[in-house]
Amino acid sequence: MEKQIFSLILITLGVFVIPFLSPFLRIPVAVGELLYGMVLVPLMDKADLEVINFLSFLGFSLLMFLAGLEIDWNKLETLKAREKLVIALVVASNFLLAGLAVKVLKLSVEAVLILGALGIGLMLSVLRELKISPYFKQIVLITGSLGEVITLLGLTVYDLHLTFGWSSSFYLYLALIGLFGLFFVFLLKVINLLVWYYPTQVASLIAEETKAAVDIRASFALMLLFMAFTSFIHVEPILGAFIAGTLLGFIFREKKQFEAKLSSFGYGFLIPFFFVQVGFSFDFSSLSVLFLQLSVVILVAIFVIKVLSSAWFKLLGFSTKEILLAGLLFSFPFTVLIAIGKILHEKGVWDSSNFALIVLITVISSILFPVAVKFLSSKESSA
């Protein structure tokens, strides 16, 4: 018990200090937390981390829920048909090229998810700092959002396949996810309509002292409900959290207030425990010349795939520099890469060295590519 308390104190101190150190080190806070976890490897015993593992699981669940919630469906629906077609072509080309690269490099089939991964978590914070065309930002964000949904839905399907193969049970449970999702959407629609048409009556049902927190409670309840369901049908509950967040964001479009509350709670407390725990899981014994060479090959493959698939943006009038910029922005899907690596490691598909490879690729890409983005965008704005 004393060792667990010591570990908890060490991690909590790091979580508090890292946001102040990260700007000086010029790295994202999440990357700093992950690196801090690596530093703790020789100081802590992995057997004494029950509390940390529990907090990490909650943090991971909330991270995936927020990843689904942050998708802006309003922007997607307001796009013109030509813009929707180009975005679809970019995302489709991305995964087709990832599949081709897996064949050429003779990697395992699940590596398609790594090479094709798209996400907007870290990209969003980088885009906020850039002084570039708002239209470019919008198109890139929507493309990243759609790609994130497809990546994680693909991981969900693959997770089911690992358990059931291509048997009838696979299709049955896949259909169950769809049906439960439709029921979930229907339920949220009914709640939304009740709040819209009877705001006074609904408000009167809630005690005054709990009104400020009711949206947080409801969000957690829905997240846990979907996690329980997906766990019941042999799918990782983490993926259930993502689907719940995606559906909630799809129904409740005016979500800024409760999304901000959840983000503050998540990134301020629970999610850092997850990133530190991932860093702490890093297997240093895997490091070798071949390991580092493979990391470089995969990083280059990710970048080339993203740039080539972004070439479709030419149809929207993007310049060559903007296409290169889009490729760079798509090359560091921090949250999604960690999620894929963590889930495949826990499912026993990958061993600790494979997971260490993904962690290393995630750290390098999340430091290197944002720097390249800022350098290229400064050239673009000055040109």
TrEMBL record:
Subcellular location: Membrane
Predominant localisation class: membrane
Residues annotated as transmembrane: 7-31, 51-73, 85-105, 111-127, 139-158, 170-191, 212-229, 235-252, 264-282, 288-311, 323-343, 355-376
InterPro entries linked: Cation/H_exchanger_TM, Na+/solute_symporter_sf
Any single GO CC term annotated in Swiss-Prot or TrEMBL for this entry: membrane
GO MF, one example: antiporter activity
Keyword terms, alphabetized: Antiport, Ion transport, Membrane, Transmembrane, Transmembrane helix, Transport
Keyword Transport attached: yes
Domain Cation/H+ exchanger transmembrane: 15-376
Gene Ontology biological process terms in this record: proton transmembrane transport
Entry membrane topology: Multi-pass membrane protein
Pfam family, one: Na_H_Exchanger
UniProt-recorded name of the protein: Cation:proton antiporter
Species, as recorded: Aquifex aeolicus
